[in-house]
Design brief:
- The chain is α+β, with helices and mostly antiparallel strands.
- The protein has a single domain, classed as q2cbj1_9rhob like domain (Jelly Rolls, Sandwich), CATH 2.60.120.
- The chain has 3 helices and 9 strands.
- Strands 1-7-4-9-3-2 form a 6-stranded antiparallel beta sheet.
- The relative contact order is 0.23.
- The structure holds fe (ii) ion.
- The site of fe (ii) ion has 4 residues, from loops.
- Fe (ii) ion (FE2) binds next to loops.
């Protein structure tokens, strides 16, 4: 097992259990996103949903359009991003040079407007999840852009410390527990991948343009096709 990382400068301190996330922009988003928007609105309109309502497709989008070029390009970009972040999170644990493969167990899109949102949640039966912003619309762009007001359409992530806030004791000694959330500001072409167990919530969104995202979750296998631990919880 890898040695636990120590804080710089003080050999008596051990810092444990950071949360690893990946944020990067898709280099081809200006080509891919318009094609995705066309596909998504066609898909939604075939179901004759009320365009005023928030819409979420079923989570097997990749099976509906296996030959759609831009959706395939996005899925590849997402899969590479999952390998990148999982490699970093498992540094010192994965065997050196081992090839891993990613299975996107769910891929779906959401179109939102009219102050729609989802309650706080986590994703199950997967190790990594994420959001790709196809159209940020009028989402807040920075903390300054919504100062004094609720952010618009921002994705908020809650760290493990959140568990200890309710009814917890707060003083200057545990000020670090208050640093328990992080906001992803939507931008066209921005990808954000996070551990699936991390709680998150999109703030209500309202704007002239719809907020359009792709969501996904994934499992990661090693070269033998196994995703299980080297040890058993039953031993
Ligand atoms: Fe989610």
């Amino acid at each position: 097992m890898a040695k636990k990382p120590r804080a710089d400068g003080n050999p008596n301190i051990v810092k444990l259990w950071p949360t690893t996330m990946l944020v990067k922009r898709f280099a081809h988003f200006q080509k891919v996103n318009p094609a995705l928007l066309e596909l998504f609105y066609q898909h939604r309109d075939r179901e004759q949903r009320n365009p005023e309502q928030a819409y979420a497709s079923k989570d097997d989008l990749q099976n509906h359009y296996p030959l759609h070029q831009e959706l395939g390009e996005l899925a590849e970009f997402i899969s590479k991003g999952i390998v990148e972040v999982a490699t970093e999170a498992n540094r010192g644990l994965w065997r050196q040079g081992e090839k891993v493969s990613v299975t996107l167990t769910g891929l779906w899109f959401q179109i939102s407007n009219g102050f729609s949102f989802h309650e706080m949640h986590v994703h199950g039966n997967c190790s990594w999840s994420g959001v790709y912003y196809v159209q940020a619309g009028d989402c807040s762009t920075s903390p300054e852009s919504h100062r004094g007001k609720q952010p618009n359409g921002v994705t908020r992530f809650y760290g493990p410390h959140m568990e200890h806030m309710a009814g917890g004791f707060g003083d200057y000694g545990n000020l670090y527990l208050h640093d328990n959330s992080w906001d992803s500001y939507p931008e066209d072409g921005k990808l954000c991948i996070f551990p699936s167990h991390i709680k998150h919530m999109p703030f209500p969104y309202n704007g002239d343009k719809d907020r359009v995202i792709v969501s996904f979750h994934a499992q990661v296998f090693n070269s033998s096709g196994s995703m299980s631990y080297d040890y058993s919880f039953n031993n």
